[in-house]
Every structure is written in C-alpha cells, then in structure tokens.
C-alpha cells in the first residue's frame, strides 16, 4: 500500500530534522572522517596484501630455482633434502612416477594438484598456486629434470590483521577527534548566528526595534546580519509611519467630530426641553441639519481615504491590460455625479497600460476632485491624455491660483493642506493616494503651473502594447471554421 500524500516523513528523517545544526555538523564531520578512514584502510590493506604476496612469490621462485639446479645435478632421487628446521619454507620433490620426497620432520603438504602434476610431466614450466585449506599454503612448482620441485610457504595474515587493528584504533581516534573538531568548528562558526538569534529573541520580547545587530563575521553571515538590520530598519519606518498616520488621523478627525458632536448635542438638548421648534426656526434647523450631513459625509470620506491609504499597496485587484482612456472617462463621470457643479473638459486618446483599474480610477478621480476645488465656476477642469514616447501622459489642470513654490515639496504629503486650502473641504489625503497609486504602477507624478496660471498635475505611466485586434490562428487552423 502506498504512503498517503502529505504524511509525515519517516522516523530517521524526522529525527535528523529535529537535531540542532551543531549536532548535524558534528555527525557529518565524524561520518566523513569514518568513511575516509574506512576507504583508506581498504586501499592500504589491498596494497599491503599485494606487496606481501608479491614478495613471498619472488622468494618462492628464487628458492625453487636453487632446489631445481641441485636436483638436476644430483638427480631427483639423490638430491639432498636437509631436515626441516621447524619453521620457514617447505619443500617437496615430485618424481617422474608421481611419488614425492620431503625432508624429514617437515609437516605434510597438501596433495599434489593436477596442475602441479602436469608441470612434472612437462606440460608447463612452472605454476604458482594457493591452497584454500585451513592453514592456507602458497605453493610454487618448477619443472626440474624428469619431474618437478615444489617450494611452499604458509600464508601469514598476521601482518594484515595487525595493520587492520592499528587502523581500527587510528580510525576510532580520528572519528573522536573529527567529532570534537566538528563540534568546535560548528560552535565557532555558529557563534554569530547564536548572537543573531539572541538579538532577534530580544527584539521579539521587548518590541524594541532601535537596536541594530552588530555587523560581524563574513560572507553569508554578514549578508544575513545586514539583511536583518535592513528588515529592522524597514519595521522601524513602518512603525513610525503607522504612528504618524494615527496621530495625523486623530488630529484631522478631531475638528469634524467636535463640530458634529456640538451640533448633535444642541439638537438633543433642545429636543429634551421641547423647544426645538421655537428655538430653531425652520431655516436655521435646515441649515443645521445640512451642516450635520456635510460633517458626516466629510467623516465618511476621511475614513474611506484613511482605509485606502493604510492598506498601502495591498490589494485584491489583479493587474490587467486596459485602455487608460476608459479609466479617465469613468473617473470624470463619477466626478460629475458627485459634484454636479464641476465641469470637466476631456481631451483623451487611447493609450494602453498595465495596471489595476479601480486604483487608477481612484487616482484620476482624486486629481479631478482636487482641481475642481480650485477652478472657478466658469472655468472647466481640463483633462488631457496622450501617448508620449513609451509613456502614457495624463495632465489635469485648473484655472485656480496655482500652488505656491513653498508648498510644492509637500503637496503629496499625507494630511498636508496649504494655507489657502484650510477653508475648503478635504482631508489632505487625495494627492497622497495619487502618488501611492502612481508609484505602485511604476510611474511618476509631478506638479507645475498651467497655462491658465493654475495648478498642472502630470502623471507619467509606462505604456503597454495594445492587444491584438483579432485572435491568432493556430498552425493549420482553417479560418472558415470560425
């Protein structure tokens, strides 16, 4: 049965993931050294075994040649075989009839193999063979006269075993030393990360974003510390912006809320006394209710603008390819419905951009509303849209008094209102929202003086290629099928 998708990893993997980075580095270092020692032991053992066997074979060949020379001089049956001294090489003479001669006192050798008999019969000159018995003999057979002579040696694995035991001890010491070195290196190398973690924990507990983490270490550690310091700086700026937004919003809300509260309290007080009709004539009551409605509308507009501004660039709206002329016309229509007295003169051409329709329409609407506040009743707000190079250029100008040079640097600041605009309705957020939307679309918004001596606000947005007027045909597709 297959393992269900999304199931937790197996136990060894889960255990490994739960280990600390120090433990992982220590285990990796110790394992690497253990593997290196094992591979080195295997290679060295093979080389040592090959060298010992080659030396033993050369010695057997040399001893066989001496014995064969003596056998040819004295004859295989008469050649002198000294008694076995108790250790060392073993010899045997193979006679033509297959019988054998061995020195007195010598341990019995394994029976003569078929290949050795063929050497004695002259089928081949010599033969090197190893015996797989318990003792393990290495036997060299050399043709001599009408028979052969053999020199054998017990295969001695003690040097290999001693070498392996020594390598085992060295390997254990290397693994222990590698683990210690790996632990030390991990502790030293991860010290900056430990300090970084402590600083991050301190920031999380104290909520203090002002203390930068010391820039230490090198390479990846330094880049990580700098990235976290940049993140803390961005968080500080965000917190500062939130605090300023809250303070400015409270300040801007205070005046309409105070006026609204006074008007409502006056109405409630007169209504409780039963003197509402006598104390407030119909004309005064109508004016007061109109003021209350205007103040509620101002608060609603301010709340909507604050919500839009606080959201920043976060939006559920998707970016799409759109004709900016349609957005400008829709914004002008909304502006006329909101303020029937405003007159908007449009001079737009089709220019395609990639953007969010609702956000762009809100920005254009804010530009038109701002110009409508300053334009005289007999002078329309002029809105022009054209393509200029690789940009879509939108210009909105009015015939008002224009913007003073001292106010130009701050005209897009939140809640900023020039001295001449204090008596006009508004929150000072409209142009700030325009700048945010334009920046989010990779554009630029500037302020200048128009030809009518009023304010000219210009928006430059990256233009996009218009969509194909007709869908493209797939290869081999017949147009008649459409």
Give the secondary structure arrangement, pairings included.
Blueprint: H1 11-18, H2 21-74, E1 90-94, E2 100-101, H3 114-120, E3 126-130, E4 137-144, E5 147-154, H4 158-189, H5 191-206, H6 220-273, H7 276-279, H8 282-310, E6 320-323, H9 324-338, E7 344-348, E8 352-355, H10 357-374, E9 381-388, E10 391-397, H11 430-440, E11 444-449, E12 455-462
Parallel strand pairs: 7-9
Antiparallel strand pairs: 1-2, 1-5, 3-4, 4-5, 6-8, 9-10, 10-12, 11-12
Helix pairs in contact: 2-4, 6-8, 9-10, 10-11
Give a written overview of the molecule.
With 482 residues, this protein is α+β, with helices and mostly antiparallel strands. It is 51% helix and 15% strand. The strands form three sheets. The chain has a five-stranded antiparallel sheet with strand order 2-1-5-4-3, with helices on both faces. The chain has a five-stranded mixed sheet with strand order 7-9-10-12-11. Strand 9 and strand 10 form a beta hairpin. Helix 2 packs antiparallel against helix 4, helix 6 (220-273) packs antiparallel against helix 8 and helix 10 packs antiparallel against helix 11. The model is unreliable at 419-427 and 472-482 (pLDDT under 50).
Cα distance spanning the termini: 50 Å
Integer-rounded radius of gyration: 50 Å
Pattern of helices and strands: HHEEHEEEHHHHHEHEEHEEHEE
Instruction: Outline the low-pLDDT stretches.
Output: 419-427, 472-482
| SS summary, helix count | 11
Silhouette: rod-shaped
Structural class call reads: alpha+beta
Q: Main beta sheet, described?
A: 5 strands, antiparallel
On the 0 to 100 scale, the average pLDDT is 77
The fraction of residues assigned to DSSP E strands is 5-15%
Helix content: 40-55%
The largest beta-sheet arranges its strands as 2-1-5-4-3
Number of strands: 12
